[in-house]
């Protein structure tokens, strides 16, 4: 059971007897020492969460273990009881791994996890952009101001109308201006992360193959 500072390590034998269940520093070497006191080889399960994949990769590559990442949503539903402790969570993960019922997710390699960080960052920026536009729309509705007919929102013509011709109160115009400034900053940030993504994935054969598909 993974935590940033420590890991709850539960060790079971082949018959499901608990040999060890206690907190251990979040360090692959310390975890290896604890578990291998009871024998080897080791099959392990770690619930997927931020940081868990890095630990799992260390245990696979450096400790030589077989490690599966557990799907957190399925595991939570399988518990089906209010006993939510590190002890019980670690015990259940170990038992599911022991009997082969662990709901697994893919342990992505480090380079894929790095790309995911860039993609998630772009998603966060895009979410901020969407929210800023929604707030501007709410301000206009609150002020009962509408663009001239035939002008679509967020086109060059619409933004020109908003900044130069829309009849807004002093404070509303100031707030709208702040949102527009933020949108310009977000546009630059999104452009930068997209360029970084393009560079990071330029030599990826799967990306090159996907880019041959119309619409991608």
Q: Which SSEs are present, and which pair or pack?
A:
Layout: E1 6-12, E2 18-25, H1 28-36, E3 43-47, H2 52-61, E4 66-70, H3 72-79, H4 86-99, E5 104-105, H5 110-142, H6 156-164, H7 170-201, H8 205-210
Parallel strand pairs: 3-4
Antiparallel strand pairs: 1-2, 4-5
In short:
This protein is of the alpha+beta class. It has helices at about 30-35, 50-60, 70-80, 85-100, 110-140, 155-165, 170-200, 205-210; strands spanning about 5-10, 20-25, 45, 65-70, 105.
Task: Summarize this structure as a short list of keywords or feature phrases.
216 residues; alpha+beta; 3-stranded mixed beta sheet
Question: How would you describe what is shown here?
Answer:
The chain is of the alpha+beta class and 216 residues long. 56% of the residues lie in helices and 12% in strands. The protein has eight helices and five strands; from the N terminus they run ββαβαβααβαααα. The protein has helices spanning 28-36, 52-61, 72-79, 86-99, 110-142, 156-164, 170-201, 205-210, and strands at residues 6-12, 18-25, 43-47, 66-70, 104-105. Helix 5 (110-142) runs antiparallel to helix 7. The longest helix has 33 residues, at 110-142. The chain is elongated and about 75 Å long.
């Amino acid at each position: 059971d993974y935590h940033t500072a420590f890991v709850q390590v539960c060790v079971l034998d082949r018959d499901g007897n608990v040999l060890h269940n206690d907190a251990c520093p979040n360090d692959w070497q310390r975890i290896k020492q604890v578990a291998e006191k009871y024998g080897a080889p080791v099959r392990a399960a770690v619930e997927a969460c931020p940081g868990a994949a890095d630990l799992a990769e260390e245990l696979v590559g450096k400790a030589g273990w077989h490690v599966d990442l557990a799907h957190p949503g399925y595991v939570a539903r399988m518990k089906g009881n209010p006993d939510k402790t590190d002890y019980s969570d670690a015990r259940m993960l170990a038992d599911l791994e022991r009997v082969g019922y662990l709901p697994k997710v893919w342990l992505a390699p480090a380079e894929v996890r790095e790309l995911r960080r860039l993609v998630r960052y772009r998603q966060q920026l895009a979410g901020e952009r969407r929210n800023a536009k929604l707030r501007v729309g709410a301000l206009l509705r609150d002020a009962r101001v509408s663009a001239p007919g035939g002008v679509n929102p967020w086109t060059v013509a619409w933004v020109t109308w908003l900044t130069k011709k829309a009849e807004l109160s002093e404070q509303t115009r100031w707030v709208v201006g702040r949102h527009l400034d933020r949108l310009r900053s977000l546009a630059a940030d999104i452009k930068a992360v997209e360029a970084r993504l393009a560079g990071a994935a330029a030599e990826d054969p799967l990306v090159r193959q996907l880019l041959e598909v119309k619409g991608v």
